[in-house]
Structures are given as C-alpha cells and as structure tokens.
Amino acid sequence: MTFRIRRVTTTRSGGVSKAPFDSFNLGDHVGDDPVAVAANRARLAKATGLGPDRLVWMNQVHGDHVVVVDGPRDTPIDATDALVTTVPRLAMVVVTADCVPVLMADARAGVVAAVHAGRVGAQHGVVARALESMVAAGARAGDVSVLLGPAVSGLHYEVPAAMADEVEASLPGSRTVTSAGTVGLDLRAGIARQLRGLGVESIDADPRCTAADQKLFSHRRDGLTGRLASLVWLE
C-alpha cells in the first residue's frame, strides 16, 4: 500500500487577526489576540478537511527534541521542535516566520514528520533526529521525500562571520553571501546537504523567501508579526 501525502503551507491572507499580525496568524505565542488565533486555526482545520482535533501543534523551543504522536492531542506538545506520526489523517504542524519548516514523508511506510528548523535547531541536528525517529517507526531514508518550506533565504539572512562559521562547522553548506555581499546563512542549503548525506534523495525547496515576500510573515523583516503554518499528513 502507498499512502497519499498532503503538504500545505499557509500565507498571511485569509484570517481575522489585526495588524501587525494581519491576517492569518497561526502562532499563539506572538502576542496576538487568542480569540483571533483560535479562529484562524479553526479556519485552517476546516480548509484541510481534517477538523480541529486532527491538527497537532507544538510549543517550539529551537531545540532538537522529537515527539512521536500516536493520536489526536487537545493541547500543543510542549518543548519540542519535531513531530512524527504513522496515523493517517493526523496532521503534524510547524509554525514559522523565517525558520525552515521541514515536511518529511515516506509514502510506502506511512510515516510523516514536521520539523521546526531554525538556526539553533538545525545546527544541533533536529532534522537528523526527526529522520532517525521516522526510520525507527518503519521509514526508509531512501523512500523519504522532503519539502523545505518558505524561509529566509541566504540572500537576506545576514549574520556575523563567527556565527556563520559555527553553523557551517556543524551544518556544512549553510554559509553563503547575501545580496549585499556580506556573510550570510542559507539553512535550506545546509539541511538539504545534510539529508542527502543521510540517504534522502527526494528533496524539494519552496523558492519563496519570507524576508522578501510580503505575502509571508517574517520576523527578520518586521519584528513583531504572525506565523505561517506548514502541515503534513497521510491521506
């Protein structure tokens, strides 16, 4: 049996949040009206056709902790940055505003994962930890397909040279040059290289840059702002 994999990423549009969270903010930790966030999450659940009890959220902490989810959750899972499941029609959700949402799936084994890969988490191996958990759940690295969602691009992610060197040492392929000619980071490039080294062959990257695309939330561009949601599930 081969499962159908669904991957969804939201934009800023279609919600009820007021500025500066306008309008489809899905982050409940950014200072937005909780009523508006709840309404936006309900809209997302309806749009997926899954229902609110079939979306599993995280309280992300920029770490490398992975949780295997065996059923619906009433509340977000605390202190984790990656979710793995083998349960059909149960969506794993990651929220971002510049970090990399990594959506992973093995359609043959029926295993999916959603990963929040910011600079610190990616550097500490959260994507590799998620892949390890998928394999433990029955996946095969060579059968895993990955979508690296919209994130700040290397052209717009300027960092101090020492920071870039530190990330490059643990996540080779990340160090780059920005559009201004300064030192930068391209986390999606580093993650893709890491995954290929782990045996993953099917890797796609959303070309959109959160800092450059006004249709997307970007903390780096705007400071106080909302969060996008990226979801993956077995249909």
Q: What's the N-to-C terminus distance?
A: 12 Å
Helix-strand string: EHEEEEEEHHEHEEHEHE
Structural class determined from secondary elements? alpha/beta
In spatial order, strands of the major sheet run 3-4-7-6-8-11
Give the C-alpha Rg: 17 Å
The geometry reads as globular
> Can you count the beta strands?
12
The whole-number mean of residue pLDDT values reads: 97
Low-confidence regions? none
- In DSSP terms (H or I, runs of 4 or more residues), the helix count works out at 6
User: What is the helix fraction of residues, given as a range?
Assistant: 10-25%
Described by strand count, sense and barrel closure, the largest sheet is: 6 strands, mixed
Strand content: 15-25%
Notes on the structure:
The protein has helices at residues 34-48, 119-123, 126-136, 161-170, 187-197, 219-222; strands at residues 5-9, 55-56, 66-69, 82-85, 91-96, 100-106, 111-117, 144-148, 175-177, 183-185, 202-205, 228-234. Strands 3-4-7-6-8-11 form a six-stranded mixed beta sheet. It has a four-stranded mixed beta sheet with strand order 1-12-5-2, with no helix packed on it. The chain has a two-stranded antiparallel sheet with strand order 9-10. The protein starts with a strand and ends with a strand. It has six helices and twelve strands. It is globular. The protein is of the alpha/beta class.
